[in-house]
Design brief:
The complex is a heterodimer of chains A (457) and B (183). Chain A is mainly α and 457 residues long. Chain A has helices spanning 2-25, 31-51, 58-76, 91-113, 121-134, 159-164, 166-169, 177-194, 200-211, 214-219, 226-246, 250-265, 269-286, 288-296, 298-306, 312-321, 339-348, 353-356, 359-366, 379-399, 409-420, 424-433, 436-444. Chain A is 67% helix and 0% strand. In chain A, helix 2 packs across helix 8 (177-194) and helix 9 packs antiparallel against helix 22 (424-433).
């Protein structure tokens, strides 16, 4: 039992510290973005320390958690915060809050109920146990009796396995305690992003719909990488949108930390990172005011763009120099999948109700409404651009994958490709919610919200 | 009539924010309860879509299953979830030494769990798991044990001992260790 308590306290400390750091770097940050920031920074610190030879184990986890907590308390001190407005709840909002609390309890139970179940999940959780056993990143799996192949999950950067190692380091069998925090943090980050821009009722409704997206909700049960990478991609997108909106360059540092975490969890995070920055470039191209801001912040932009070198880059170097392995990858110039099958999959999977429910249908409904009204802020436009560019990037990535990789087309598209669409769920949800269509409900009134809930600028 | 005129004037008056123009402030208690009713109805509709219903239903069943889980050991929880493949892993872990090299099945007819090195390694690390083809490629490598299955046992030479607990000792040190096995 003490193992469970220890793990929960460690992740709470990471959330508390992360929130302090996030508030310093992005003044509007709440607990959702705070946990994602702390989570990413904690994993980066543990990984870099292990890279330099620190033995992986409970002591390392505790030291880094204390560093994050202390850093957060130190940095979060004295940051001016706006007055807290206590707005009365309408009965409709109270119903949504009750539904969200119930879903949160179900999500928490989903995370901790099962032991490791999925066959591929055993690779990440098993790697966590192996790293704890050997106390190093260089576990025997890599060397003996054979080197890993491009099909091996063990060739991935190890950050999420380090997160899954926290629980067993405390003596607790349930790796997925961290999933409870992730499952609650990303919807909370969505709410924190939407709340200043749309009425509370609408923000709650969007959080509920996105949080219940079937495939994502199911993945709370798994020791896999898709959900955490998606959550950190969302965090990076929120920081980039915040930077475009406010011009506060410190948000770029937070965006970089989240991008480094994402790329240290899944290598395809580098593609998503690139797509988000292309979306930034598109928004900047349409808003001349932003060009001069971007020029003056060029150092911060470079740091944020190159942050994944800290994790994915160093892992590639470590694999090459220490493990003696060439970086493995699924991309091939010889027999790639090509655009045809990927585009057909794009026509099918986002609108396959079984996987994504109504989430992408809502985005499709919102899409025509963009451009019907001149926008006063760049946030909605950024999320729209980010969704479209990320979708194109995913299509390009999968079209380049070797036909023989990972069990072939019949396995890659229904599994890897479908899960890569996770990245699009929060981005498309934010774009939909900030479209004129997404705001329509609030403008009708009739008891959905109190007038204090509106902040229309 | 009077209400219509006032509302129209309000809409055209730039001094008032749009929220006030659309009558959102307050709403009146009856409007609020109608909104609440519609919200509840929308939630019921969402939860009635089969895929949402299934996901929420399974999460609910897990929630009410928590008291039963609390009374179970970890091995029992795993066996409950994973079935016989976990039973095999438990037997192998109990009856082999930590640095053993263990031969596992690669036969497609066997359960995918028992064929997967990463699945087996999760329960057996730091024991090393190999497939038959690795042994063939590296003649110097000797397996200590083999995990037997109905399909995999057929490929072993007849000279090896009869399977015991789904596990056969192959190397000399494994055969020595097997003497400590309990019947």
């Amino acid at each position: 039992m003490s193992g469970w308590v220890g793990s929960i306290l460690l992740w709470l400390a990471v959330a508390l510290g992360g929130r302090g750091i996030a508030i310093r770097l992005a003044s509007r940050a709440g607990w959702g973005l705070g946990f994602l920031s702390g989570f990413s920074m904690f994993l980066i610190l543990v990984y870099v320390a292990a890279l330099f030879g620190a033995p992986i184990g409970l002591s390392l986890f505790l030291i880094m958690a204390i560093v994050i907590l202390g850093g957060g308390i130190f940095l979060g001190r004295g940051v001016p915060r706006g007055p807290v407005k206590h707005e009365p709840w309408t009965p409709a909002e109270a119903i949504l809050v009750a539904a969200l609390l119930s879903v949160s309890v179900l999500a928490a139970v989903k995370a901790v109920f099962f032991p490791v179940v999925a066959i591929d999940a055993h690779a990440y959780a098993g790697r966590a146990l192996a790293m704890l056993h050997d106390r190093t990143l260089n576990i025997r799996f890599y060397h003996w009796p054979e080197p890993p192949t491009s099909n091996s999950n063990l060739s991935y950067p190890p950050l999420m396995s380090l997160a899954y190692a926290v629980s067993p380091a405390f003596g607790c069998w349930q790796h997925k305690i961290v999933n409870v925090f992730l499952a609650l943090a990303w919807p909370l980050a969505i709410f924190e992003t939407l709340r200043p821009r749309i009425p509370r009722f609408a923000a709650l409704a969007w959080v509920l719909v996105l949080g219940l997206t079937p495939e994502l909700f199911a993945h709370i049960s798994f020791d896999l990488l898709n959900l955490p990478a998606m959550a950190l991609a969302l965090g990076e997108a929120i920081c980039l949108a915040g930077y475009l909106e406010s011009g506060a360059r410190k948000q770029l540092l937070l965006a970089g930390a989240l991008a480094a975490g994402m790329c240290g969890i899944r290598p395809d995070g580098a593609v998503i990172h690139g797509a988000l920055w292309i979306a930034v470039a598109i928004v900047v191209a349409f808003e001349p005011r932003l060009r001069s801001i971007l020029r003056s912040d060029v150092l911060f932009v470079l740091i944020a763009c190159l942050a994944p070198v800290m994790t994915l880059g160093t892992w590639a170097i470590y694999m090459h120099n220490v493990l003696g392995l060439s970086p493995v990858g699924p991309l091939s110039a010889g027999t790639p999948i090509g655009f045809g099958p990927v585009l057909r999959a794009f026509g099918y999977f986002p609108f396959w109700l079984e996987a994504f429910g109504i989430t992408f249908y809502l985005f499709a409904l919102a899409l025509p409404w963009f451009g019907t009204k001149r926008r006063r802020e760049s946030t909605g436009g950024f999320y729209l651009a980010a969704t479209c560019i990320t979708a194109i990037a995913i299509a390009m990535l999968f079209s380049r994958i070797d036909r023989g990789y990972g069990g072939g087309l019949g396995a890659v598209l229904p599994f890897s490709f479908k899960r890569s669409l996770f990245y699009l769920v929060p981005l498309s949800g934010l774009a939909s919610a900030l479209s004129p269509w997404g705001r329509a409900l609030a403008f009708r009134g009739h008891g959905w919200v109190h007038h204090g809930s509106l902040d229309l600028g | 009539m009077h209400h219509k005129t006032s509302y129209s004037a309000l809409l055209n008056d730039s001094r008032y924010p749009i929220a006030v123009k659309h009558g959102i402030n307050g709403g009146g208690s009856s409007r609020e309860w109608i909104a609440a009713l519609l919200t509840a109805a929308a939630l019921v509709c969402l939860a009635s879509i089969p895929v949402y219903h299934a996901r929420l239903g399974s999460a609910w069943r897990q929630t009410i299953g928590i008291p039963r889980r609390l009374g179970m050991s970890l091995d029992a929880i795993r066996f409950d979830q994973l079935g016989q493949p976990f039973g095999v892993m438990r037997v192998v872990k109990t009856n082999t030494f930590d640095d053993a090299v263990i031969l596992i099945t690669g036969d497609p007819a066997d359960p995918p769990e028992l064929r997967s090195i990463s699945w087996c390694a999760y329960y057996l690390y730091p024991r090393v798991l190999v497939h038959q083809e690795v042994l063939e490629k590296d003649p110097d490598l000797e397996a200590d044990f083999a995990v037997t299955t109905p399909h995999f046992i057929a490929g072993l030479p007849e000279s090896v001992a009869a399977p015991k607990l789904g596990l056969i000792p192959l190397s000399a040190r494994a055969r020595e260790y097997a003497k400590t096995w309990k019947e």
